[in-house]
Amino acid sequence: MWLWLRRNSRASRRMTRVSRGVSRVSMVTRMSIVTRMSMVTRMRIVARVSMVTRVSIVTWVSMVTRMRIVTRMSMVTRMRIVARVSMVTRVSIVTWVSMVTRMRIVARVSMVTWVSIVTWVSRVTCRVSHRTCRLLKENIR
Question: Which domain of life is it from (predicted)?
Fold first, then answer.
C-alpha cells in the first residue's frame, strides 16, 4: 500500500519526472560530450592526416621538381661537355690530319723537287765532264 501511495502521490510523480529529466539531460549531455569529443578527435585526425598528406605531397613535388631540374641541368651540362669535347676532338683530329697531310704533301713535293733538281744537275754536269759526274755520284751516295 505504501508503494501504491508512493507511486500515485504527486511528490512521487514529480520525483519520477525529475529523475527522467535528469536521465534525459545526462543522456543528452553524454551524447553531446561524445559527439563533441568524436568531432574534435575527427578534426584532429583530419588535420593531422591532411598536414601529413600536404607535407608528403609538398616533399614529393619538391623532390620531383629537384630531380627534374637536376636531371635537366646534368643533361644540359653533359650535352655541353660532350659537344665541347667532341668539337675539340674533331678540330684537333682535323687539324692533325690536315697537318700530317700537308707535311706528307710538302715532303713528297720537296723530295720530288730535290730529286729532280739533283738529277737534272747531275745530268747536266755529267754531260759536261765524266770526272765531275763521278764525283757527284760519289757525293750523293
Answer: Eukaryota
